[in-house]
Amino acid sequence: MLGGMQDFELRVPRLIDHAAREHGAREIVSYWADGSETRTDWSSIARDARKLAQALERLAIKPGDRVATLAMNHAHHLVAWYGVIGMGGVVHTINPRLFDEQLVFIANHAEDRVLFYDRQFQPIVDRLKAQWASIEHYVCMDDGAFDTLLADEDGAYQWVEGPERDPCMLCYTSGTTGNPKGVLYEHRSTVIHAMAEVAPWVFDLSSTSVVLPVVPMFHAASWGLPFATALAGAKIVYSAVNDPAVLCRLMNEERVTHSAGVPTVWLALFQHIDATGEAPQHLRQVTIGGSAAPRAMIDRIMGMGATVKHLWGMTETSPIGTAGCYPPHWDTMTRDAQLDHACKQGQIPFGIELRVVDDADGVLPRDGVSSGRLQVRGP
After folding, report:
1. Which residue, 343, 270, 332, is CA-closest to 308?
2. How far apart are CA 87 and CA 13, in angstroms?
3. CA distance 51 to 71
4. CA 167 to chain centre
5. Whole-number Å distance between alpha carbons of 311 and 195
């Protein structure tokens, strides 16, 4: 017997449809590599994503085909994600910081058919184009070619429907032996992740949030933020450069409340603050992942009036595994006790299961002492 709810398949395009319908005027700001700034909104992102889906079909791209991006954080990259996924394709984010032989391997292994790239990575494209056997179309996203591609389309496009366990995204991890390994994300897990990430114990997002994701869109799906922000209807402030002066200015001018990045980002920001006296004024939450944040870093950010949350995950976990969560008695804890807690990697969000097993696959107790092999699954 089945329940009687009129449900639907959990597919990623429903996130962008929700953002456009309920929060269509909420802004997406992009600071580009050439120093220019542009503004769009969720409604326009959804419209352009539909246009891109039309353009890809005109290029004979079919559901299941892989479409790669070699790009930093900006609105066109966001359009590419939703456009590719919306027409049934699989968006493959490529990390430009990898070695040439790795870049050749992953594009060929994925059998990418289209590459969207930033102009700053033109030297990589020129150098490796002859070795990328499957890529048929190259589109630069910040020299006018992307806009030209969309200009001939009307956006009257219906997203491709299908099972929620269809693939939607491909990320390769280089943290492994041998060649990078591909991790294929599905619609269902991506949507459930987004639902978990907006919660207070992860990113704590709503339509009042202003998010500056320093974590690149090519790093473990930008920790899921392009999907979680759509679900929340949050404002996004993107920067294609990680210069601390630019980031600090954007944080203040756009009144950024949430930011996420690796510890080195915050070290560079501290150096800028020490040199100029200019500090972010509106931050409410800073999320740190990639490696553990030093205690002194957490203490300083908390001194700026923001909460600090660790995130732990891997490309393989799609990507969140644990998230910092403050206990109910946080306000009565001493500063040292708060720092002790904030230095931990947090708790397991709903939808994720973790356990530690011994060499015989026996489950070990959660006692903070036992060590073994970590197993993760979900959602």
Report:
1. 343
2. 9
3. 20
4. 17
5. 16
Tokens matching residue 10: 């959990």
Q: Could you tell me if 251 and 269 are in contact, meaning their C-beta atoms sit under 8 angstroms apart?
A: no
What mean pLDDT is predicted for residues 333-338?
96
| Cα–chain center distance at 312 | 14
Cβ–Cβ < 8 Å for 308, 298: yes
Report how far residue 314's alpha carbon sits from residue 318's, in angstroms, rounded to the nearest whole number: 7
pLDDT confidence of 1, banded at 50, 70, 90? Answer: confident
Q: What is the DSSP string of 310-323?
A: EEEE-GGGSSEEEE
236 CB-contact burial (10 Å; exposed 0-12 / middle 13-18 / buried 19+): buried
Q: Among 265, 263, 262, 259, which residue's Cα sits nearest to residue 281?
A: 259
- Can you count the helices (H) and strands (E) in the chain? 12, 16
Domain boundaries, the chain: 13-347, 350-379
Task: Go through the chain and tell me how many residues it has.
Answer: 379
State yes or no: pLDDT of 333 exceeds 90. Answer: yes
Rounded Cα gap, residues 170 and 84, in angstroms: 12
Mean pLDDT of all residues in the chain? 96
What the block records as the tokens of 151 is 């200009």
Tell me the C-alpha distance between 40 and 74, whole Å: 11
116 touches 80 (CB < 8 A): yes
Note the CATH number of domain 13-347: 3.40.50.12780
pLDDT for the residue numbered 368:
87
340 vs 302: CA distance, rounded Å:
13
Tell me how far apart the alpha carbons of residues 110 and 21 are, in angstroms, rounded to a whole number. 34
As a whole number of angstroms, the distance between CA 209 and CA 200 comes to 12
Closest CA to 20 of 41, 52, 43, 50: 43
Q: What is the pLDDT of residue 176?
A: 79
User: Is residue 54 within 8 Å of residue 64, measured between CB atoms?
Assistant: no
- In which element (H, E) is residue 376 found? strand 373-377
Give the distance between the most distant pair of CA atoms in the chain.
67
DSSP character at residue 347 = B
Task: Take residue 133 and report the two structure tokens written for it.
Answer: 């056997």
Query: Is the sign of the CA dihedral 133, 224, 227, 214 positive or negative?
Result: negative
What percent of the chain stands above pLDDT 90?
94
